[in-house]
Design a protein that fits this description.
Elements lengths: L1 H30 L11 H22 L2 E10 L4 E5 L14 E2 L23 E6 L12 E17 L2 E9 L2 H16 L8
Parallel strand pairs: 4-6
Antiparallel strand pairs: 1-2, 1-5, 2-4, 3-5, 5-6
Length: about 200
């Protein structure tokens, strides 16, 4: 009987003591700074997914912005070909069988042609064309007829001391995506996306 009375007395005391300990522990934890969230284990995979999504968006933009570069080569540079595009007269068989047409072919540029904002329409104006096929080797005054994907801009030296921005196109879609992503990274890093 004495045991039961002792247990009845001891039970509330123990409960109060344990409650006090729990309360004390909660107070101590509340006064501590909140725990730092652990670093995401998948940061690398999340970054890779972000890059893949961005790359796919740029790819879709390049496909939507593709143009038919049809024109005369004005200058052969290390970075590509400067082309005066807009020679829609070149879009006739059998000239369209090759991407490069010799300068001996008669062709004229229609000055009244305007560039439409539709994928695959003829490009008008001075452009830089990169990532062209290796063969045949292009020369100044030859003509090109090839699909180009937008790849940023290029500062072309039209005359000594005069540089002007012109559109840059790549004949390869993957190259256009890579160049566009590089230009975007340079732009966000604060660097000007210019050639030397």
């Amino acid at each position: 009987m004495l045991r039961i009375k002792f247990l009845r007395f001891l039970t509330p005391v123990l409960a109060a003591a344990l409650t006090g300990c729990a309360h004390h522990q909660a107070v101590v934890k509340a006064s501590e700074p909140p725990p730092v969230a652990p670093a995401r284990e998948n940061d690398a995979s999340a970054t890779a997914i972000d890059r893949a999504v961005k790359s796919e968006q740029v790819r879709m933009d390049c496909i939507a912005g593709r143009r038919l570069i049809c024109g005369r080569i004005v200058k052969v540079l290390r970075d590509g070909l400067v082309v005066e595009s807009g020679y829609t007269d070149l879009l006739r068989p059998p000239l369209t069988a090759s991407w490069l047409i010799p300068a001996t072919v008669p062709a004229k540029r229609d000055s009244g042609t305007i560039e439409l904002r539709q994928p695959g329409t003829p490009c008008i104006g001075l452009v830089l064309l990169t990532d062209t096929p290796k063969r045949p080797k292009p020369k100044v005054l030859d003509y090109v007829v090839i699909i180009g994907y937008p790849a940023g801009s290029y500062r072309y030296q039209a005359a000594p001391g005069i540089r002007k921005p012109i559109r840059k196109f790549a004949a390869g879609l993957d190259t256009a995506v890579r160049l566009t992503l590089q230009a975007q990274e340079n732009h966000t890093a604060g660097a000007l996306p210019m050639n030397p």
